Amino acid sequence: MGQKKDLQFSIELSSNLIYNIVYTKEKEDAFLLSAFKNFLITFGISVVVFGLIAYFTVSYAVSAMTETPGEAAQPDDPQDTDISFETTAPPDIGDDLPEIKGQSFNVLLIGTDLQEGRFDDYDPNLWLWELEKYEMLEVSDETLESQSGLFRYRTAEADSMVVMRVDKEKREFTFTYIPGNMIVLAEGGEIEIGTLYSSKGVDILRQKVEAVTGLRIDYHVCVSVEELEAVVNEIGIVDFNVPCSMEYVDEFQDLVIDLPKGNTRLAGSGAAQLLRFNGYTGGSENRGTTTVKYIMALMSRAASPSNKTSVAQLYEKIYELVDTNLTVEFLLENVDLIFSYSDYNCYELTYPGKYTADEDGNQIFEPEIKNAINMFYSYRLPYDIKQ
Asked: Is residue 344 part of a domain?
């Protein structure tokens, strides 16, 4: 009886073990099946999601390569057939330009109506300032007494002036015309600025130009009519567009001007006629504008590459012809800067004011000095600003 119970217990135990093994196996199979299903579902979703991402990314890249920046590509637009693949703007090399030797400076160009080679009846007082300056013998009192008041003596005046500013840092040349008949305060009253040349000398004239511009004038170049002709002949013929027909005769000055309107080639004599003409009838052209345009054309001719090989000889010839405090050594030190003229910005700064007539009917220029100083303020070189 006891053995029968033990057998039955063993059978039940075995049955339970087999059931547990089978049940556990089924659970594991079910679990694996479920995990596999989850994997398939996750994998499918991932494929769809990443496929969509890849699709839109590639589409955007292709679109970016074939569209003009800032506007959508039009497949039917024939202008889009020439595709540019440049994706970055060219670098700004403005600050990487090679360093130019030299230093910035301002120079006052003075044109006088002196013609010593043609006339010998200039006022004996004319050059007293120069005699004093160089401590030369003065004109005797007897000479002054014998000639005073007997004749109408000639005077030499600064007929016109141009302030040329050479700015190395800003890479620009500027030109400003200063009329010789500009009214300024000097010698206890109002006078024309050009008369200071004969009465007070170049240094005082330069100081007055500094006063009406606020600019420091480092150097001056003073050239007479005859010297101008010689200088231009040394530099070379200049092609120039004469703005209007220029015809004028003045027997007292032995002056004949006869230049047709239009493009022409001007040597020394023609340049002198152009710059001395003052018969403009209105419009945008006037003596100042024409003078500046011619000087700019002359500068372009002088700073042409063909002159650079013989620049020392050219400077020496010009130096002998004009009255200047510039030295050949200074010009040679600044030769690279001067010959950068064609690469720099070059333009005219018009002095503010107006032309009118005095009580005798003579033309004068009334300057707006405060406006001029304000205008020149932003163009000053670092050392120009004075206390």
From this structure: yes
